[in-house]
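Researcher: Please translate sequence to structure tokens.
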Amino acid sequence: MELAYVCEWEKRPKSTHCPSIPLVCSWSCRNLVAFTTDLKSEDDDKNVSHMIHIIDTEHPWDVFSINSGHTEVISCLEWDQSGSRLLSADGDGQIKCWSMSDHLVNSWESVLSSSLDGDPIIALSWLHNGVKLALHVEMSGSTNFGEKFSRVKFSPSLTLFGGKPMEGWLAVTVSGLVTVSLLKPGGALLTASESLCRLRGRVALADIAFTGGGNIVVAATDGSSSSPVQFYKVVVSVVSEKCRIDTELLPSLFLRCTTDPLRREKYPAVTHLKFLTRENSEQVLLCASNQNGSIVECWSLRKEGLPVNNIFQHCSPVVGEKQPTILKWRILTTTSDLERVSAVALPKLPISISNTELKFCPGLGLALAFHDGSIQILHRLSLHTMGVFYGASSAQRPGDESAIKRQRTAGPTVHFKALQFSWTSLALAGVDNHGKLHMLRVSPSMGQVLEMNTTLRHLLFLLEYCMVTGYDWWDVLLHVQPSMVHNLVEKLHEEYMRQNQALQQVLATRIVAVKASLCKLSTATAARACDFHAKLLLIAISSTLKSLLRPHVLNTPDKSPGDRLTEICAKNTDTDIDKVMLNLKTEEFVLDGPPLQSLQQLIQWVGDFVLYLLANLPNQGSMVRPGFGFMRDGASLGMLREMLVMIRIWGLLKPGCLPTFTATSDNQDSMLLLFRLLTKLWLCSRDDGAPQDPDDSLIDECCLLPSQLLVPSMDWLPVNDGVMVKLQGKHPLRLQFGKASSLPSNAPPTPLEVFNRTPGSQRMDNLRCVHMGVCPTEESKACTRCGCVTMLRSPNKTNAMKQWEQRWIKNCLCGGLWRRIPPTFT
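Model: Translation complete:
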């Protein structure tokens, strides 16, 4: 375990961020981290605003701070399962739901709220949507994704008509109330509250879990270790447009440390109560503490047979010869006396393990943070220590007496108040008692020395998991060394090619995005990252242009015009574009002028791209340049060929939409020439035959291209400004919230001249393929993952352009989230 970066607040004289008590932090599957602080103003100590801060882990300095409007300290933060909405609850019974405005990660607004006046909330959760995957680690060598990740039968907490899961949230308050708010499809909220049991008592700690049958289990304790930990079953239903809650008592347990004669009075308070996972209501983790130390216990719910007296065994009616059973909590393991625990983090990876031989794999460890600033990772069932991190302040290693003495006199040490695992359990985010955010790498081997192949296999397994679920894979990239990139990309491609056709189609763009983000990590493969991004743009443009085609007669049983175009282009190997056009029904291509004109920039990009590829064919030698990946990629070349045919037909209808080339002679038919050369190149790498090298005559013709047409310089993607590329070294980065300039700038110069931008160069809108000028005045947004930039407001209002923009309004083409970047004023 090692520190990747620390982000701290700027020291201002007037207002200070101090961690709120209780400090909460939450990490979403899109790798957004939310945490709370209190903002004090110095003039008036009473005046405290309760802030929620949201960052994306790639740009931690770009923090979005919300003045939450909560009147009391925020006690809970919870992301939903899609990672795009956040719930916050406070000590006054208010619950607010936040979501992104305009799909930007640095712009949030409160959309819904519910409140129980004056009743502090101590546990909060979204209702379960019934989606649950299981990871079979022992199958990680299998070729089929369906065997590695299987969908578990799990009922949603509440369903609408037709089995669609109903959205909403559930909270538990200090006075023993459980409250549910349901989101109706129209946007209205249905709210109801009910006490957990007939005798309402104070609840100091609670946690919520879900069962496969769609029920909810709440664990609650009054905070004293001599009282029982109670469990309740909660069933939510909607009866005649009203929400109804039924509760029922389940078996309870007493902590082992209070029944142990040696430790009976030692740990008076229960400080942490957590179910091991949200979907596992049968295993629970408890921590009891005193001023100086803690003890952690893990309990499990088991079915046990009830012994029956002999008298009854003979005369009772035999019901299937079954012995009566009862549910009982049994202790699994307990730790010895530990330092005082300040925070607990549980893994979110849904691992299902059939054999217990597996000593290490991500997601098996839970993390405990202690008051001396250290963190330990323990096995989640056996509670053996698997890894230790000594905080920056606790420099003492065990056995250093003088440091311990020094520390006692120095006042409270820096320690973590809140701790959260990422969704693949490869990273830990901790917020300390000064409000700083620490990002820790948790190695997949959990402190054991593994050979390279095992580490690679773990990382590959988790990348595939992110691909299948759609989660963000930033935390997996934390562990990828530049030397691993090539192997990972190759293996990922192999695994992908083994899946069935349908799954390949679903994951087609995701795998390209994963490969692109891997290739960025090493300077040797940076050119391939350009190719993968160009491929994403190409796939998107191709499907947009094809979707504009309309069948001439509506009730044709045939394929759609786009599919028919693909089929004809694949069969017809003619190098003359006009002969290929003869086979198509031209009436399907009739479009009005304005949509064609508005897409001219995209059409121009396709034309420029084909010209760039062909002109660079002779140069693709020892050094891999951008564009190399397309030379053997038959599918992409076929796509470009189809688009040239479409553009050629549209050019007959409206010459204004054709791509413009600067030719040396006036009677040069550029489209005809490019199509002929592209077809020859495509024939070399078609799917059915083994790929051949392009023959000399083709290379000679490509060498002549620059003398016939002016070859454009392609605008490859901007250099990513995120933190990932800077984390290659072993030293942790020190960053400041609100200051992007705090990144160390001594990065090695990139060996590729395509990436280097002169400061006065034109800025590009990478998705609309428009130049924005040297100092754009328009507000724009950038992708958190690939750094792709585009304008926030559309300069063009035609339907065809809207159709193109809808493709990337929520996420970038690579699947990353958008963040607003201010216009650059000089």
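Researcher: Any highlights?
Model: The chain has six domains: 14-115, 119-301, 340-379+407-442, 446-521, 524-708, 725-821.
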